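hey m, so remember when u said the C-alpha cells were messed up on ur end? i reran from scratch. heres the input so u can diff it against urs
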Amino acid sequence: LRVGEMIKQSLSMIFIRNEAKVPNLETNTITVTEVKMSQDLKIAKAYVLPLGGKDADAKIKTLKEYSFLIRKILSKKVIMKFLPKLLFRKDESFEYAEKIENLIKQTNK
C-alpha cells in the first residue's frame, strides 16, 4: 500500500506539472485516483480519469503508448530497487457509485 501511494503521489505531481511532455495530451487535466501494486512490486496499475471524463478512452490510450516516457520521469522521483511497469486503466468507480446512488433514489420513491 505504501509503494502504491508513493507512486500515486509522484504520478500526480508529474501530471500536474506536465513534466512528462506527452505529445497531444495535457496531463494536468488527468487525475490519478488509485495505484494498485502487484505482489512482487513489478507492475503498477494506475487508475486515472481525465477532467470531466471527456474522451477518456483516447487519453488513456495515449498514456499507454507513452508509458515509457512517464516511467522515465518517475524513475527520477521514486527510489526503488526495481521501478514497476506502469499500466494505465480508466477509473470507473465514480460511474459505479453514481449508478448505485440512482438505484437507491429510485427505491426511496
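this time it looks ok to me. The helical segments are 2-16, 56-65, 67-77, 93-108. if urs says something different then somethings off w ur setup not the seq
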